[in-house]
Design brief:
Blueprint (H helix, E strand, L loop, with lengths): L10 E3 L4 E3 L8 E7 L2 E6 L3 E2 L2 E2 L3 E4 L4 E3 L7 E8 L2 E7 L2 E2 L3 E2 L3 E5 L3 E4 L8 E7 L2 E6 L3 E2 L2 E2 L3 E4 L5 E3 L8 E6 L5 E5 L3 E2 L2 E2 L3 E5 L2 E4 L8 E7 L2 E6 L3 E2 L2 E2 L3 E4 L4 E3 L8 E7 L2 E6 L3 E2 L2 E2 L3 E4 L4 E5 L3 E4 L4 E8 L5 E6 L2 E2 L7 E4 L8 E9 L2 E4 L3 E6 L3 E4 L4 E4 L4 E3 L2 E3 L5 E6 L2 E2 L8 E3 L8 E9 L2 E4 L3 E6 L5 E3 L4 E3 L5 E2 L1 E3 L4 E3 L3 E2 L2 E2 L6 E10 L5 E11 L6 E2 L4 E3 L5 E2 L1 E2 L5 E3 L3 E2 L3 E2 L6 E10 L5 E11 L5 E3 L4 E3 L5 E2 L1 E3 L4 E3 L6 E2 ...
Parallel strand pairs: 39-46, 48-56, 58-65, 67-74, 76-82, 84-91, 93-100, 102-109, 110-115, 116-121
Antiparallel strand pairs: 1-2, 3-4, 4-7, 5-6, 7-8, 9-10, 10-13, 11-12, 13-14, 15-16, 16-19, 17-18, 19-20, 21-22, 22-25, 23-24, 25-26, 27-28, 28-31, 29-30, 31-32, 33-34, 34-37, 35-36, 38-40, 40-43, 41-42, 41-44, 44-45, 44-46, 47-50, 49-53, 51-52, 51-54, 54-55, 54-56, 57-60, 59-63, 61-64, 62-63, ...
Amino acid sequence: SSAGNITNYVALWDGNNWQAIGDGFNGKVLALEIYQNQIIAGGEFTQSGPISINHLAYWDGSNWVELANGTNGSVYALRALDLKLFIGGNFSQVGNATPADNIALYEVSAGWSAMGAGTNNTVRAIEILNSSVVIGGDFTLSGSDTVNYLAISDIFNNWQAFGTGADNSVYSLHTTSNNSIYIGGAFSSIDGNVSNYIILKKDTSWITFGTSINDTVFTIAEDTGTIYLGGSFTSANGLPANHICSYSGTTFDTLSSGVNGNIYSLISLNHDIYAGGNFTTAGINESNFFAIWGIKPFLQDQSTNQILCLGDSLGIYCSYYSTTPLTYQWYHNGIAIQGASDTAYSIPITTIADTGTYYCIATNLYGIDTCFSITVTISTPPSIVTDPVSSVICQNDTVTFSVTYSGTTPFTFQWQFDGSNIQGATANPFVIYSADTSDAGQYRCEVSNSCGTVYSESAVLTVNPLPQVNFTGLDSNYCNNSAEDTLSGVPTGGIFTGNGISGNIFNPTSLSGYQPITYTFTDLNGCTNQITIATQVNIVQPVDFTGLDSSYCYLQGQDTLVPSVSGGVFSGYGIFGDSLFDPSTVLGYDTIIYTLTDSNGCTAIATHITYVFQEPPISFYGVDSIYCYGNPPDSIWATPAGGSYTGLSSDNYFYSDSIGTFTVTYAVSQNGCSGTDSIQIVVHSLPSASFTGLDSIYCANAQEVALSGVPSNGLFYGPGIIDTVFYPTQSDTGNVQIIYVYIDSVGCSATDTQTTYILPTQIVTFYPLDTAYCINHNPVTLYGYPSGGTFYGNGMIDTIFNPQSAGVGVHEIIYTWLNSNGCLSSDTQTTEVFNIPDITVVDTVGICYGDTMTLSVTNNDTSAVLLYIWSTMDTSQSIIISPTHNLTYTVTVTSGICQVIESVFVPVYLKPIVNLDNVYNICRKDTIHQSGNYTSYLWLPDNVTDSFLIALNSGTIYLFVTDSNGCQNSDTAYIDLKPSPIIDLEEELFIPQGNPVVIGTGNNFDSYLWSTGDTTYFTVFYSDSLAIGDYTVCLLAQNDNGCWDSDTTIIHLLSGMGFSDNENPFNINIYPNPSNGDFHIFLENLNYQDVTIQILDITGKQLYKTLIKNKLELKQQITIKDKKTSLYLLKITIGQEIFLKRILIK
């Protein structure tokens, strides 16, 4: 019992009271676990209320239900991991008959399985470490392997010693978040490490606690890194610790005065420690077998330090965890704040006085806790005290701007120019060195701190530009013989200074060396600027030269000129090379200048003049440079007159009567200078010319011929000549002369002339050939003019053209005639032969009245292009018709000039007559008939194809009928069913032989008739004297409307209705059983046989049936809802074998 309530070994604490969980158990509960969202209990019990449960159960929300047939011995430990449930205890078998020594694994999908060889004694603790299973207990062996009270599984679920094991029993295991494991028990050493009753394995190292604990540790729990131990010990680390203590990671601490008996179970929940065991007091309080160790307030979260601006709102908080009511008190600078007694504290509008330190103290039944101090700083925004001052400066001057200010430090500064930030201008004061005119504008300072930003008034900076000063007129170098220069200053009005300056005139004649000249100007703003330009004045050395005559003939020859000082340059039209004078390059007066420029760039000049007479210019007239042999003689003369010739005849004529190259020379003198000139004349031989390809005689209608001249590239002339081709058809008749002219590269020519004779020809024609024929046209006789000629072409025999012989297509017919000159004339005409259209048209096709149909012409010759015209005047290959009476349609099909006319007869059929009543007020299963003998019927929405319809439901029906002509008609009606009896007997009943069964229906009908002879609403089926097999029972019932209904049930009479739960070849397993209507059925070794699953109630009525095909094994979920608590029969048919199982729905 718990708090006076009967709970039978298991109870639920709801936070205030203990409550029973179902009927509890008849023995101790030694382990609890959550698996698949259900509570799992294990222990020494064998029953819960009236239900047998073997040591292992789950709570289904209403009752405790045995888990998968339980175990055959006590369960001491449970541990769930995902879909796996590990069970430890003192047993040798689990489930129906699965061997498992003290440790086993259960999975919903796979059922029970043993874990390796198990152990040789009780398993008391199970834990998961890095995906491996660790167990502890009273065992020393796993199979033949020594494991000494502590073992760990490998990847194959085989057990091996954890280290070398312990020297005594292990009762408790606990893993931490960093995958370390605490081990508690009755041992004094593990893996050779001395550590009484408690030890820690961290990574690969053992952490021992020596003799800190003086007796057995039965249970271990953890809360936020603190380890709690429970057991039979009475001291920890030398301090009194009655059966319970904590370990913080460095030291053991006692929990008040502990309890007065052993603690066997600890659990942490919401930072409280729950303890269960064999005690009656906890601390100074009476507490039978169960107690809670509460904790003082536990700080979870709080505000950090706040930096606010004057007038901001302040909001701070501290968050504690506590299982008992808390009280809060906030403090400011160590003084309690009146009314500040909540988890949060706020000030809507802050002042400077709110600056300081805040903290909160939380109190509950177990103690107090103070949060960390929260520092609140209230800052004031910046304010400008004095603004920057405006300035007017000249370009390149320095200017400084500054502000004074007040507020809470630290401050930042940003100077702005015309409203935009100045990069890098973040200091006060702000200095502009060597100001430019682009710096002119408005300057202000942005002063900021954490609470805001303020701007100074703008100071205006005016930067007057320096005057743009320059002067011109001064060269970079002067010689002392240079002329004066006038200097011009810009702007005007300035002052020139420097050597050689007189006003604005620079005179270098009295100067030498480097001479700087400065121009200075001051504008109306008082801004002064100046520019200095330097020049160099150099000394000049005098020069002269000899060797130049006063006159020359043009072709006299060169003279060498000699300067008085070398290093200069001669210039003039006749200068050749460095110092040669060549008169052949000059005519008339020529000035020769010697210029010497020294290293300073100063130039001295010497000048002399000479005159060059030209040799008389000679020109030849009346002569060519090239002649052909035999050309007429040419008269030759030259100018100026008075000279003499060589190379001509005495009459000064040139005769081209010899082939070769000839020279003619003329000599004459003027002004003491003589001149001669010569010309060369070439006389070429004449070329030869001929051509081939021209016959001596042609007919006037002969084909053209190509002529070939030698050499090529000459020109042909004559009647009928076009380029190099002779066309007799374009020439005159009779004798015709053809000339070939060839001109060589120097203009000398040759010709060849040939004569041919053109014979006249006769013009011929023929008739009467048409331009087109049908292929079936009669042969046509053709007549040629003049007569006596010959016809050629497809389909021609002598003078007769046969279109059928020629075939479909275009044909050329040629008539030729030979005249007395032997010249052949011809005439060519073209005709086309068309095929007769090859088409197919259906002779007769019927149509239902009111329908439409398509008439089409089939073109059997897809290569032919056909034109169509119907009697309806349609011109397409197909037409759509909807005649109202019998009608004949014609179509004319044309291919070229050939036509075919076909006709189609279209009879029109009347549609079948369908005449349903508008409304049928009839009984259910009454028949509605449609008169007439038609080919097909279709009743909708029932899809009935008979000529009648059995009425089963009220509503609108539709009937479609089709007659032998394929014509269809339809009608609609409404069925209004009278209230009719509806009988719904079970389709099948499964009855054990010898058991009677009552079969019935509703008792609200007027009359009944059973196939058994009974006339009441039920009948009794007796099977005592019946053989095993199937039997049919029928019922006919009628109500006061005269409406009736019938139904049939099949009774399967079974033998040997025993219920066996023994093992079978298919390892049939049902889980859970009992259940709330959800079952899982597991079958093995099916060998791909079909399986039928049926569920029957105790009357044999079938509640569920399913067929599963072709399976090797089966995992099937079955749901039977809304069924009362009762025993049901599960029938499983596998091949020819039937298996029966009892199932209980609660």
